[in-house]
Write a structure and sequence with these properties.
190 residues, alpha/beta, six-stranded mixed β-barrel, 4 helices, 15 strands, globular, Phosphate propanoyltransferase, zinc
């Protein structure tokens, strides 16, 4: 049985806590939806912020909503070199001991002490998809990417939940190396 998944290329983005949204955009501010994302209830917001590291900044980083419990900036390794932040490869939400960043919005700024990561490559599985393919949460998978310069990626983390939709997420560095784009397919081979 072929185990084919859709690929989503994840550019740099930020998740903000409601407290930080209000510091950056004003008291009571609510993010507005630009477009829905592949995961149910998730969206790219119209709003952007500037993030500032020791060597440089990115002036328009897209916010993904809804608000999260903790603020987290997800960048590529190339991005981390460009702004001077030594971001470790981590699974989303695992920010303990990660570097911080200065975030600037139209109403204020906030310096977080942790939260900058390079997101570990992963596949979101709805529980039914994972069961059908014999995959468990946190399994490390081997995946073949299609694309002009196709490649095999190892240590792709399986993330299984009833609230997920089947989709693989890689960052722009990985996508560029493979010549892959959002909407391409990948095959789980181990």
């Amino acid at each position: 049985m072929s185990k084919v998944v859709s690929v989503g290329v994840s550019a740099r983005h930020i998740h903000l806590s409601q407290e930080h949204i209000e510091i950056l955009f004003g008291a009571g501010y609510q993010l507005t939806e630009f477009k829905p994302l592949s995961q149910p209830g998730q969206f790219a917001a119209n709003e952007t912020v500037e993030v500032v590291g020791s060597k440089g900044s990115f002036p328009k980083v897209r916010i993904l909503g809804p608000a999260r419990a903790a603020t987290q900036l997800e960048i590529s390794l190339t991005d981390s070199f460009a702004i001077g932040v030594k971001a470790p490869v981590r699974e989303s939400g695992h920010i303990d001991g990660t570097p911080g960043i200065l975030i600037k919005g139209p109403a204020g700024e906030v310096e977080v002490q942790e939260g900058v990561i390079v997101a570990a490559r992963h596949i979101h599985f709805h529980t039914s998809d994972a069961q059908k393919w014999g995959i468990n949460d946190q399994d490390k998978l081997k995946v073949r990417l299609s694309g002009e310069r196709g490649m095999v990626l190892e240590n792709v983390i399986a993330r299984v939940s009833d609230s997920f939709a089947l989709d693989m997420h890689i960052d722009t560095d990985e996508a560029n190396a493979a010549g892959a784009r959002t909407g391409d397919t990948a095959e789980i081979i181990d």
